[in-house]
Amino acid sequence: MSDFQKPTSSEEFKKNFAQIKPLMDANMAYYESSRCLFCYDAPCVKACPTGIDIPLFIKQINTNNLIGAARTIYSSNYFGHTCGKVCPTEVLCEGACVYNDQNVKPIEIGRLQSHASTFAVQNNIHFFSPQSSNGRKVAVIGAGPAGISCACELSLKGYDVVIFESKAKPSGLALHGTAPYKIENQEVLEEVEYLKRHFSFQVIYESKINSPEEIRRLERDYDAIFLGVGLGSTRATKTPGEDLENCVGATEFIEQLKLNPLDIEIGKNVVVIGGGNTAMDVASESARLGSEVTLLYRRSKAEMGAYDFEYELIRSVGANAIFNTGVIEIEGEQSVESVKCMKTVSKNGKLETVPGSGFTLPCDFLIKATGQSKQTDLFDKMNLDYDNRGKLKVNEYFQCSRPQYFAGGDCVNGGAEVVNACAEGKIAARGIDNWLKKR
Ligand SMILES: Cc1cc2nc3c(=O)[nH]c(=O)nc-3n(C[C@H](O)[C@H](O)[C@H](O)COP(=O)(O)OP(=O)(O)OC[C@H]3O[C@@H](n4cnc5c(N)ncnc54)[C@H](O)[C@@H]3O)c2cc1C
Ligand code: SF4
Question: Which domain does 29 fall in, by range?
Fold first, then answer.
């Protein structure tokens, strides 16, 4: 049972979507930072894809040096604040903290990181001095975490960078995808504004790069091109009834929720299909919108791709989950009225339906969290190689099969976390710099 009523005001929305990692005050940050053992060869650092010197910034917080702490964070990760709030720290830095071995609560690294980075963003503290222009131009396609991280690093090295972004706002899925109870939109946007003030890159919004003419123009006018275009829309499942009203894709639903939280359309009885982290997010979000939620996953709980803590979160807000259940038809006259399901079983790694196990589950809204498509149409227009799963092929410097192109983030890794996109955008920027210097 959902514990929530559908929010009708911003205040009610904020209450239902209260931050799960709220900002610390100075006392809490002091206390928490005092617990750190400042380990040598610290495992938390090794677990961070951007390699932030975690014991150093925790020590700096502990000695009331918030500017130094923020410098430590931002010199490794340009999305220090966003990552502090949205990173799955439970399986990254905090999951690696030595306290876990002693059955003691790990250090709340993410919240400490947000504590220091908020100070820098809100006080507009300046850490970086971009070099003057070296006369070379780089086009970045996509203003998500990968594209913006790449642009920051390149502008530090004196490149003139222009980002082409198809949407009206920056930050990609960090803004349009991450759950509102992890980070508020305003925090994501403020961090990008902060970066834009300190680095000289330009962003051109509502400027989707798609036509062969635009692509040839970029190839002609820019020395290098970085692709940070992420993934595409939710994949079709080819289930009969998928075209009915109120049957929507998870990423499209979440984007609407993030942009128009009070006008979002949802049913009273929501079925979510999927077993990944996006399925958990959308189930939790639907429950917080006051709906009764049932998650259907075709495999067992142990086989879910979602992190355990994400599953615990949906259970804590009253969403129900049924495993080993596949949807074979979505039923309804015009709009979704029910789903026809079959129980499944895994035999030698293959999924089989159990004869005679069919049942019908009434629902008035269905959200498919069954994965996102890849941007292979665009890659074809650019003549770039990708693997059989649609991931761009790159070398260790994130350079694509055509040397003028580099890429990073979800379009290369197939869909990971914000922190991976940040790390890859930065490595690619260094790759671009090395490649252009040799030419
Ligand atoms: C629902 C959901 C929830 C998530 N929650 C979390 C979370 O809690 N924590 C976490 O760490 N990660 C989370 N992720 C993953 C994370 O958001 C992504 O891994 C990360 O944003 C990838 O960054 P990116 O820059 O590669 O791509 P994106 O963030 O997707 O950015 C790509 C950008 O490119 C633009 N673009 C695309 N094509 C074009 C084009 N042709 N021309 C111009 N612009 C274009 C897009 O509009 C977009 O702004 C979530 C993902 C989803 C789907
Ligand atoms: S592993 Fe834990 S205790 Fe050790 S430095 Fe990292 S946060 Fe501090």
Answer: 19-122
